[in-house]
Design a protein that fits this description.
Elements lengths: L2 E3 L4 H6 L5 E6 L4 H16 L4 E6 L4 H6 L7 E6 L2 E7 L4 H9 L2
Parallel strand pairs: 1-3, 2-3
Antiparallel strand pairs: 2-4, 4-5
């Protein structure tokens, strides 16, 4: 299951993580975000070398603003506390998995 990210745990779980972290910026009212949900959950079970997290932009607008989230779904990969990859809009699970395997 994907880790629920919040303002309380974002720094520890993402920025200070020893492993790469894939963060799905989403909102409950967003249809395309809902379409991505099964793929995100599958990735969280299949990808052991990458932490998979979800951040609700409605509940945590400060973090969304800090990372320039202008549309959702947006997914960013953090490594060593820095953004190293970004995906905007609905993505195919296989493409995301391939990108994450090549970090």
């Amino acid at each position: 299951m994907a880790l629920e990210l919040t303002e309380a745990n974002f720094e520890q779980e993402v920025l200070k993580s020893d492993t790469p972290v894939f963060v799905d910026f989403w909102a409950p009212w967003c249809g395309p975000c809902r379409m991505m949900e099964p793929a995100i959950e599958e990735l969280s079970q299949e990808m052991t070398q990458v932490k998979i997290g979800k951040l609700n932009v409605d509940e945590h607008p400060g973090i969304a603003s800090t990372y320039g989230i202008m549309s959702i779904p947006t997914m960013k990969v953090f490594k060593g506390g820095q953004v190293v990859k970004e995906f905007i809009g609905v993505q195919q699970k296989d493409k995301l998995k391939s990108e994450l395997e090549n970090l």
